[in-house]
Amino acid sequence: MKKKLNVFTVSGLMTGPILGSGIIFLPPLAYDKLGQYAIFAWLIMMSLNCLFAYVFAKMTITASDNRGISAVVGDTFGTRFGALAANYLTAAVFFGPVAVALTASEFILPAGNELNTWKAAGAVLLICAVIVISGVSIMGKFMLVLSSITAGLLLAGSGATLFQLPALTVPGSLPAPGDFGQTLLLIFWAIVGWEILGNYVEDVENPKLTIMRAMLISLTAVVLVYLLTAFAFQNSPSHSMPDLLIPVTGRFSKVVFSGLAAGLCICTISTFTGGVVRQTTVRFKNAGLPEIFHHKWMIALMLLIVDYIVLFLHAAGILSFQNIIGIANAMFIGNAVLDLACGFKLLNHILIRIGIGILLFLLLLIFLFSSGYALVLFLVITCASLILPVPIRKPVF
């Protein structure tokens, strides 16, 4: 199979989704919680981001196929735990894309048109499915262009905003421990996303070299954008994200920001859906399912149907937006915990293991706030994955 992803397209594939909707909402939320002390939380979280990226990049280059990190988990802890990690990620993509699509619809639709939100979200999900089916090369190039434009505008706008201010506010003391801890939990999602990289490993040229270089490029961009944007936001008189773009886009700042926000949401959905499509294709082949289930377009269609069912349940008032977010978060946490536990065992360095321990502790704290819906589904998937047999077709030689 021809490898279609190089250093730049891999970095584009990761930068957009990791920035995602987080760069839109998290700086304001952190500022509302901590005020001028928010920059301290961002410095710590971006330090953990470096560790998170390194751990998953190192694990990705050991993955045997597009099952990604779940294959490494299976090799380390046993087949059932590998299947469990994959099932967590798949379940997360049943719900997460719907929440992100609903978020994107808020930027696409004009104010006061909330009744058509679910229709716009459905259109976003369809667009993302088409992007996934179009091929990984097109995906990578699309993400590279959009993430480069987004990072460039945010860095230029935030830098210009800080430069124009008469003085900068730099905290001279430490924040209250309780609020600081809550803020760290709140902005933890700014570093989630690196684990999906493994589900594209079969499409990457020279994975050992390409993935590590792409990780460094993406990590540098993500850290710079988050730190500079967050610091500019807390120093800006208006404390408005769109206003950070005024120095470079002028009176069109709100329109441009809305376009970037919707684009980042599309990047996030497409990358995670594409990763699960590739992972599931390999799993179905290994399970010996009929040929029709070996095609990526079929898996993408199946995921789209499930997403539409969840969207319908939301439109009917059965599942709230918070329920959807809670379920997706619980599944992502389950997958990340297994992945990090695997990294703890494989990466034999004391500082890395301490960092992984901190990440695991933060994930478990966030999990404690899971909703009843999320906990029930989490237990069902866990029990089913660990008890039911894992279908694997043995190769014939």
Describe this entry's structure for a reader.
It holds the Pfam family AA_permease_2. It is found in: Cell membrane. The chain crosses the membrane at residues 7-31, 37-57, 88-111, 117-136, 143-163, 183-202, 214-235, 255-277, 297-318, 324-343, 350-369, 375-392. This protein has 397 residues and is mainly α. It has a single domain (7-387), classed as Amino acid/polyamine transporter I (Up-down Bundle), CATH 1.20.1740. It contains 15 helices and no strands. It has helices at 7-19, 22-34, 38-60, 69-77, 79-108, 117-134, 136-164, 177-186, 207-235, 246-249, 253-286, 296-315, 321-346, 350-367, 372-387. Helix 1 (7-19) packs across helix 7. The relative contact order is 0.19.
In short:
The protein contains 15 helices and no strands.
What summary fits the major beta sheet?
none
- Which architecture name does CATH use? Up-down Bundle
Percent of residues in beta strands: under 5%
Q: Please identify which CATH superfamily we are dealing with.
A: Amino acid/polyamine transporter I
Main structural class: mainly alpha
Number of domains: 1
Uncertain segments:
none
H and E string: HHHHHHHHHHHHHHH
Distance between the termini: 21 Å
Number of helices: 15
Radius of gyration: 21 Å
The helicity comes to: over 70%
What overall geometry do the principal axes of the alpha carbons give? globular
User: What is the CATH topology?
Assistant: Amino acid/polyamine transporter I
Query: Given this structure, which CATH class is correct?
Result: Mainly Alpha
